[in-house]
C-alpha cells in the first residue's frame, strides 16, 4: 500500500546506495521540486550535500532572500548563494530566440555547477528535482511523434565532460505527489504551496531581447499581480500566475501626457500537472483592478492584457 512515508524511506535508501560516501551538489531553484529533492537528499546523506542556489539575474522579486533564509537559516544546510547575474545576462544580451535562450541558460548552469562541484572538494553527483512530466514532456507530446516542445534545461543530456552523475529522486513523481512528499518531510505549507517557477526564470517571460530594464519592470508588475491574487484569496486555487512583458511598446495617456511604454500580459492557469492547463476565470472586477494597479504602480507599463489561451494549444510559459 502506497504512502509517502514508504516512498520517503525507499527514496532515502536508494540515494544512499547510489552515492555512497561521495559528495553531492544540488541545484536549488527556489521551487518546490528542487527544495523537496534537497531536503530528501539532506536527510539521506547529511552534509555530504551542498546546495547551490544560482542567482542568474532572472529571479522574481524577493526570491533569493526567501530561498537563502529558508535553507541556510531554517534548515542549516550548506548553501552556496552564487550571484552569477553578470554571467547570465551578459551571455543573453541580444538573444531573442527562445531555444537559444534556454540552451544558453542550461549551458551556463552546467558551468556554474561544475565550478562549485570543484569548490566543495570534488562532488561526484549533481542532484536535481526533475519530475515525471519533465521527463516525458521533453521526449514526446500528446502521444505524437518524438518532438521536443521546449528544451527543459533540467532534463537529460548532461555533457559527458561534466563528469557528474545525476541524482533525481523525484523522477517518478507528479507535482501533487512531490507536494505530499514535501509535507511528509516537514516543509512549511507556505513553501509547498508555491507556484512552480521555471529554471530559465524570467527569461522565458520576456519574449524577445532581455534587458535589465525590462526585467526590473517585469519584476514589479509580477509582484503586483501576485499581491492581488493573494489579497483576493486566490493563490492556492491557481497552478501558476505570472506576468510576461511584451516586446512591444504602445501609446497610452496618463494625466495630461501621452505615454509610450511596454504592454504586458497576465497569465494564470489551473492545472494538475502542468501538462495541460486552463486559463483562470478571474472576474472582470479583478482583472480591471489589477490592470489599474499595474499601470499606476509600475513605471514602464501602460497596457495590460489577459492571456486566455489554454494548454494545448498554448504552453503555460510564453517561450
Ligand atoms: P510549459 O510552458 O511547457 O510549462 O507549458 C509547463 C510547466 O513547466 C515549467 N517549465 C519549466 N520548468 N525548467 C523548469 O524547471 C524549464 O526549462 C521549464 N520550462 C517550463 C512551467 O513553468 C510550467 O510549470
From TrEMBL:
GO molecular function, one term: GMP synthase activity
EC number of this enzyme: 6.3.5.2
Annotated signal sequence range: none
Keyword set, alphabetical order: ATP-binding, Glutamine amidotransferase, GMP biosynthesis, Ligase, Nucleotide-binding, Purine biosynthesis
Annotated ranges, domain GMPS ATP-PPase: 2-194
Residues that, per the record, bind ATP: 29-35
GO CC list: cytosol
Catalytic activity: XMP + L-glutamine + ATP + H2O = GMP + L-glutamate + AMP + diphosphate + 2 H(+)
Keyword Oxidoreductase: no
Pathway membership: Purine metabolism; GMP biosynthesis; GMP from XMP (L-Gln route): step 1/1
Record keyword Acyltransferase present: no
Function comment: Catalyzes the synthesis of GMP from XMP.
Subunit relationships: Homodimer.
Protein name: GMP synthase [glutamine-hydrolyzing]
First-to-last residue of the parent protein present: 200 to 518 of 518
